[in-house]
Amino acid sequence: MYDSYSNQDFDPSDQYYIKAFHGRYIAAHPDGLLVTDDDDIKHHDIQWRIIPCDNNRVALQIVKHQKYLSTEDHGTVRCFDDNVNNDSLWEMKQLENGKYAFRSCYGRWLNATGMTDDNPPETQPHLFANKEHHHQHAQFDVIPVKQ
User: This protein's superkingdom (predicted)?
Assistant: First the structure.
């Protein structure tokens, strides 16, 4: 189900786009709000660093605000931590289809939803970690930013 993967495959100075199953990119706003409503790579807050950490885990840092993607034990995902801590470490798995899945320290997979008129970011989260098994909504493309 998983290809072999080492977190050492990523250079922390490189930048990446993380694209959800529906073709939109994960963005982090300055207030820590996470959305998956950007479909334009020219948007300024969708570039991430993948920072290798211990035990084949990674930290995901939004480039613009220098904050880390983290989760709470009940599945809330946020992006306002200034430093790497246990909540901001993710096990990153490369799947057979070439996509990636991210599992939190609580054993739950990062999932994306899409923004619609019925699901604006101020009323519904676009990212959460609440599934014990990954599925389509928990699969992401990790795309290098061309400098």
Answer: Eukaryota
Count: domains in the chain: 1
Q: Give me 137's structure tokens.
A: 């909504």
pLDDT band at 144 (very low <50, low <70, confident <90, very high): very high
CATH number at residue 62: 2.80.10.50
Around Cβ 42, how many Cβ atoms within 10 Å? 6
**Inter-residue contact 41 to 89 (CB < 8 Å):** no
Residue 97, classed as helix, strand or coil, is: coil
> What tokens appear for 21 in the block?
């199953």
> For residue 2, is it within any domain?
no
SS3 56: helix
- Print the domain residue range for 15: 7-144
Map tokens 């072999």 to a residue: 4
Q: Does residue 43 contact residue 27 with C-beta atoms inside 8 Å? A: yes
Tell me the mean pLDDT in the region 121-147.
Answer: 76
84 pLDDT tier (thresholds 50, 70, 90): very high
Q: What angle do CA 77, 97, 76 make, to 5 degrees?
A: 5
Number of neighbouring beta carbons within 10 Å of residue 123 = 7
